[in-house]
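User: Sequence for CMP-sialic acid transporter below. Tokens please.
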Amino acid sequence: MLSSLRRQINLKDLFPTRWSFVIFISYMGLFINQGLLVTGSKTSTHSYNYNTIVVVLLTEFVKFITALTIYRQTHSFSQMKKEIVDNQRVLILYFIPSALYCLYNNLAFINLSSYDPTTYFLLLQFRVVVTGIIFQFLFNKRLTRLQWLSLFLLASGCIIKQFEHSSLSSSSSIKISNINSTLSRLNQHIISTKHHSLVNIHLIWILVQVFCSCFAGVYNEYLLKSDRTTQVDTMLQNSFMYINSIICNLILLIYFDYQQPTLSSIDKFFNTLNLILSGKQYLILLIIINNAAVGIVTSLFLKSMTSILKTFASALELLFTSILAWIFFNIPVSIYTFIAIFIVSTAVYLYSINPVVNLPKTTTTNVLTNSSIHINNDDMNSKKLNIGNEQERRLIV
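Assistant: Structure tokens for CMP-sialic acid transporter:
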């Protein structure tokens, strides 16, 4: 087994070119920035002075323009029109994962208002457990003992960190911030945690976010295997995803946003836009740019890297996020955090050695938006991609 591990940690295999290393650093850095930037934009009351749905909406708009621009570099307008007409059903199919990721993105702001970045990213690793169980029951994939051990360790690490969060909360009553989406309206009352419970409203929202990602990943795998999507250009698929995401966020903003109940949707949009343009909230612009860049870099990452390298990135993200959160926000790195990071990193690594996969029937596929999977004929046997796990690594990529 040690020889197997040495083969997987071979740096030449991990970074075949210098460009691979640059992509790796960018990939890891962008995800670390994601939590730190949102945390830095919070007020002293753990809320936001901007409309978070508008921020997600603007992010999706930037992604859409970027994907469409890249697509137009190699396709004429008439070709684009023809492909859109021919693939109207694909556009409709992408509405379901778009809706799930719309909820995922907005829950990210809610959860980061309750958790520090380290705890947030650590608890999101629970997605590996959910993905493994989904594959076990829905795809008849028998999990090995090593896979079950890794899932057990990962769940244990998440429980340890959640136990610390519950312990710190047990001496006081926490008021959940009134922020975006209809889910947050349910939290406009005082939640008492004096009963020292591991399961509270914060953990519930984390689990909802995890399940949104997992089910969106499974659905995207269904799209990956569908014959109707294999011939669709990658950037056009990206455009389909982003335009659906824009529609979902507009619906959320118009009908289900209670963050600023006295303002109209148009006022909410322009108030946030004015904050960005005036320079008073430069972090908002950085959040939009960072999250838009995540999609592009993730696609490059998954095209040229193995899943084991993604696993190293996950472990390093947890480590560097905890250090940077301590430096910038004075969030202490407790013994609970240290133990949880060690256990979760070990579990994710063990899982990556023999991940649960359900490879598509075709030998070569495009990179799908939000699943971002690219499997070449030459490396199909050498790269085991955990589609569901990759899926949940980002906010609407």
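The chain has one domain: 2-391.
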